[in-house]
Write a structure and sequence with these properties.
FAD/NAD(P)-binding domain; 2 domains; FAD; alpha/beta; FAD/NAD-bd_sf; globular; 5-stranded parallel beta sheet; 404 residues; binds flavin-adenine dinucleotide; oxidoreductase; FAD/NAD-binding_dom; FAD/NAD(P)-binding domain-containing protein; 11 helices
């Protein structure tokens, strides 16, 4: 019997979970191919560490290490089109990938909500590349400020737009990082301002109000300014215009908007919800094609936009492909509310366990344990420990980044 080909597009949380679950299934008699535009998985929960000068080792996990046993063929290529009728995907390398089943795990991308100037005059915080750029940008500003005739003015004013989980995480770390840099560059701490901007009436609008309040208190305690009800209207060189307020800054960090990967909209035969996410059935298959599965940020399921959801969906899609091949009945995907663990500055996190939220050092330790648990779930134990310890290394000592 000829082996079926299962193609997974996207080597992030959903794609990796799906490939691992397929590879572990003892019934497997198929070729699993994972095509991703990056040769690594980006562990986004620790992305903020790169911005504050820590090593990307904990965030950048090579796919070759995850799939070192050779059960999954990993290919680095950017898929530019997918023909669901002909069961074929085309990569920017010119390679064509035939499949019997395909899992689209393409994730999401930054959305600027058509705000004028924003794409040109803001920095992003969604990928390792953007986090490294942000780190370099901050160091450059401190160098310029320290230089003869350098002024703090717009250089030491940092503005984070979007007070969701990633904006809050970044804000907490940035306060402490800029304090360390101020000491190092001998710049008075009082010259540094960090503002967190939110369009709605409170920070962390998708979290419980009690959690948001505690975190807000923590951010104020760290010396950060919070502006709510200030939707962004326009960005210009060194200037941002919010509703009723204009600010001068060299650093506008946009953390507010995401939308499904643009490739989804280019694939004929998919149907979408009003957020541009692909509509899937209870088995995570697309409406029109029973051999096409969508998982992660691109799927119109409850709680999408979270790594934990993408992982669960990837695992269920894998099970359903194997069950289809084995002529068994399919598993219904049951959405589950993800738990959260929100670090706010070094050594402090708000972590949900069961019905309670733990704050502070214990919350922080639980967060670290959650990272370790994920690494152990995808890597051999010793490699998982190396990755976990990688987050402690300063960037200048790590193999990935050249010293500044
Ligand atoms: C700063 C930050 C912090 C976060 N923290 C958390 C957290 O603490 N907890 C949590 O649950 N969630 C968190 N998230 C959300 C989480 O990262 C996403 O929900 C998750 O990554 C979605 O998984 P996915 O598999 O859909 O997409 P991704 O993990 O983004 O994977 C998509 C993959 O597809 C690849 N790809 C894209 N286009 C192509 C193409 N054309 N061809 C080939 N490959 C392609 C990408 O390179 C990527 O490898 C965070 C997100 C950010 C930005």
């Amino acid at each position: 019997m000829e082996k079926k080909i299962i193609l997974i597009v996207g080597g992030g949380f959903g794609g990796v979970a799906c490939a691992l679950a397929l590879a572990k299934d003892s019934r497997l008699y198929a070729k699993i191919m994972l095509v991703s535009d990056k040769p690594h998985l980006e562990y986004t929960p620790t992305l903020y560490q790169i911005v504050v000068g820590r090593s990307p080792l904990e965030t950048c996990i090579p796919l070759s290490e995850i799939f070192s046993d050779g059960n999954v063929v990993c290919v680095a290529d950017t898929i530019i089109s997918v023909n669901l009728l002909e069961k074929k995907a085309l990569g920017s390398s010119g390679s064509s990938y035939q499949f019997d089943y395909v899992v689209l795990a393409l994730g999401s991308q930054t959305s600027y909500f058509n705000i004028p100037g924003l794409a040109n005059f803001s920095l992003g915080f969604k990928s390792i590349t953007e986090a490294v750029q942000l780190n370099r940008h901050i160091l450059k500003l401190f160098n310029e400020c320290k230089a003869p005739h350098g002024s703090a003015d717009t250089k030491m004013h940092f503005v984070i737009v979007g007070a969701g989980a990633s904006g809050v995480e970044l804000a907490g770390e940035l306060v402490c990082y800029t304090e360390t840099l101020a000491k190092k560059y001998d710049i008075p701490k009082s010259l540094i301002t960090i503002d967190l901007i939110e369009a709605t009436s409170r920070i962390l609008s998708s979290f419980l109000p009690t959690v948001a309040l505690k975190v807000e208190k923590r951010l104020h305690g760290l010396g950060l300014n919070i502006f709510t009800n200030r939707p962004m209207q326009r960005a210009e060189v060194q200037e941002l215009h919010l509703k009723g307020l204009t600010m001068k800054s060299d650093t506008i960090i946009w953390t507010a908007g995401t939308e499904p990967n643009e490739l989804f909209a280019k694939i004929a035969g998919l149907t979408f919800d009003n957020k541009g996410r692909v509509i899937v059935d209870e088995y995570l298959r697309t409406r029109n094609f029973k051999h096409v599965f969508v998982v992660g940020d691109g799927a119109a399921t409850p709680y999408s936009g979270m790594a934990q959801t993408a992982i669960r969906e990837g695992t269920v899609a894998a099970k359903n492909i194997m069950n289809t091949l084995a002529n068994s009945s399919l598993v219904i995907y049951e959405p589950k509310r993800p738990y959260y663990s929100l670090p706010v500055g070094p050594g402090w996190a708000a972590t949900l366990i069961g019905p309670i939220t733990v704050y502070g050092k214990i919350g922080w330790l639980l967060r670290k344990l959650a990272n370790l648990r994920y690494f152990i779930s995808i890597l051999p134990f010793t490699k998982a420990i190396i990755v976990f310890r990688g987050g402690k290394i300063l960037c200048k000592n790590c193999k990935i980044c050249a010293p500044e």
